[in-house]
């Protein structure tokens, strides 16, 4: 058995909570590694938190070698001065979702450049094992939180998709939710099938536990309808009925629902409230307008009408909650007026996974004191389309 196979076999046999230590022991045995540290990105994507024993200090993503490997999604080899050691920092990424970084320290005489691709494959194998292990242990969830979460925040974070990034041949998307001082009702969700991508961006009213309960009800109702095979109108209607039945109009949730055809780029959309959409095409930024419809749960048996537009290869879409586009500057200017289009244009060369964080940092600067009064949600989607498929034009494409 070669050493790569031996390490992956040890990972598969390891207990869910012991994967970092199993990997460290196996890399020491087969590769001569002197130190192995797994770090996962925290919820704010500002630091990399160590997992397992011995406990290591977190490192910032901005300005550290491990952070550069995380940002660039490329292995980074670092010489440790006169010690004769080599640190190899390897991104741990599964299907486009950036989980963290695996750092391996080797004696200089055990390092050769050909090892790096093999170790990158090992870091990918580790990522897959972590996804399975998370069903049975809290170890990896705990590592992602730099501070303790409130109960409401716990409910909201657990409601989000397992990853913050999704990559397919037709698209790449990345999303981020920045908690404010209190938890409100922002949420995003997605599901990909062979033919369609379904996206949901939501903003529930209220704060704390009340907002978390409302958002949980609406998002799970939407998922239930989607998994039952209902179309977009059916999904909105079922969730609308579920929220109204529970709250009788006392609470409601704003949702932007989209269903993208992966073959053609045709989009079906229902705008039931405040989340909004901007498009970057050929260097120009513009809002994608919709006919506003009632939020889910405001009235009984609301009728929802879908709208349609088409995305073209090369388009970038940016979704934002009202905590983003409505945020005021010290002088009272709303973020969407000038700052948001400027931020979207300025981040055009960044991959989608990095755009939400960059926009939220710009939002904090726009707001003035760096502290937001509302949840702030940003989702960025780059559309590539399928080779050989020509998008159909419509009135929104010009």
UniProtKB/TrEMBL annotation:
The keyword Hydrolase applies. Keywords: Hydrolase. The keyword Hydrolase applies. Pfam families: SpoIIE. Residues 168-383 form the PPM-type phosphatase domain. GO terms for molecular function: phosphatase activity. This is Serine/threonine-protein phosphatase.
